[in-house]
Amino acid sequence: VIVDLHAHTSLRSNCSQASLEQLVADARAAGLDALCVTEHDVRWSDEELADASRALGFPLIGGVELTTDVGHVLVFGPLRRPLWAGYTFARLVEEVERTGTALVLPHPLRRHAGERAIKGGRTPPEPAEVAAWPQWQAVHAIEVASTQTSPLEQRLVAETLRLAPRPTVGASDAHAPGRVGTYATVVEATVRDAAGLAEAIRAGHVRATPAGS
Ligand SMILES: [Zn+2]
Ligand SMILES: [Zn+2]
Question: Which residues are CB-contacts of 210 (< 8 A; sequence separation ≥ 6)?
């Protein structure tokens, strides 16, 4: 199945200009099989998402984009601490090792080679440096491209993957209409809910769709 693993609605993410209805219309137009709703540090409840999925006639899967000390991390599956209590990356990794929850690293280079970082005078890291980061090694998959990453970021991620291969995903990180499906992920499994998706990600049964396909 083909899934967009990363999108924000205006209802729950201040930074987004797209309603869930718009995101789903885009997902359908792009031929996706499911869409993940991943707001910043807040979740849709399972019931809310199931209701919306039924109303819109499209498979929706819940996740959350958690803010940690190393930047954002996409989380699929339950967490033990309330989201408002926050997580360090080390604590997150320690917990999901025991719970079966899956972690994906979105925009891995944003803080170091994103547009703002470059404008601020930062020198982009070498791929060997990136490959040594705990967040590169300890997540279950790396987001290789989205509408929120620059060509430089995407190139550095590709170079690091050649050096230190990891399972990959593509995702829109949609914050506006017309973005969902621009990048997506092939999941080699039947995915009905977050638990099934987490299992597939943890097993490495994911890969980013070729850009532009
Ligand atoms: Zn993010
Ligand atoms: Zn995001």
Answer: none
pLDDT band at 138 (very low <50, low <70, confident <90, very high): very high
Quick one: pLDDT at residue 210? 79
Q: What tokens were used for 196? A: 């099934």
This prediction's pTM: 0.96
Which residues are in the CB-under-5-Å shell of ion ligand 1?
72
Helices (H), the chain: 20-29, 46-56, 89-99, 110-113, 115-119, 127-131, 134-138, 151-163, 194-202
Please, which residues bridge with residue 79 across strands? none
Which ligand places an atom closest to the C-alpha of 67? 1
Q: Within 13 A of 111's CA, how many CA atoms are on the CB side?
A: 12
Tell me the CA–centroid distance for residue 209 and ligand 2, in Å: 18
Backbone angles phi, psi at 4, to 5 degrees: -95, 115
What per-residue confidence (pLDDT) applies to 120?
94
